[in-house]
Prior knowledge:
Elements: E1 15-18, E2 25-26, H1 28-41, H2 48-53, H3 59-70, H4 76-94, E3 98-99, H5 101-110, E4 116-119, H6 124-133, E5 142-144, H7 157-166, E6 173-177, H8 180-188, E7 192-195, H9 197-200
Parallel strand pairs: 1-4, 1-6, 4-5, 6-7
Antiparallel strand pairs: 2-3
Helix pairs in contact: 1-4, 3-4
Amino acid sequence: xxxxxxxxxxxxxxxxxxxxxxxxxxxxxxxxxxxxxxxxxxxxxxxxxxxxxxxxxxxxxxxxxxxxxxxxxxxxxxxxxxxxxxxxxxxxxxxxxxxxxxxxxxxxxxxxxxxxxxxxxxxxxxxxxxxxxxxxxxxxxxxxxxxxxxxxxxxxxxxxxxxxxxxxxxxxxxxxxxxxxxxxxxxxxxxxxxxxxxxxxxx
Length: 203
């Protein structure tokens, strides 16, 4: 099946696994704003590039990674709590989250025909909130969020767990992603993937 955006889903696919932020919902800019404001609060110079480069890594693991790299002294728990609270406020101030229609179109088509799941680095509360607001939560048989895995993307755990819950072998799963870490996760899981950026950024 080929869709209007140019994405083709091959017949061998028995399960679709979606990243969330930047793939199904257009909220990466909200995460970036929340990260940068929290960085200002904690006196660390977080940039948009840092967040985009590490898309898919949960807040706690990412602030640890950045702190080690740049020798920042940050209380990881306090930072994580502040960022998550700030994201909720930024989201509230911005209004309705926009869906990414070309990818939602694919999920809409397959929601009654194939098992589908979410694999995200977001917290469960933020992920469920975004899916509910987009009115697509009940399309997915599983939501694997940051709290559900020991190892975040680019480790394959997030997608392997989703496939296992849905009862589909990795070789028959297709991952739709917009981040390099998530693509690495799919590859390491032995799954086919589609980089949705290739199709969303056309013309």
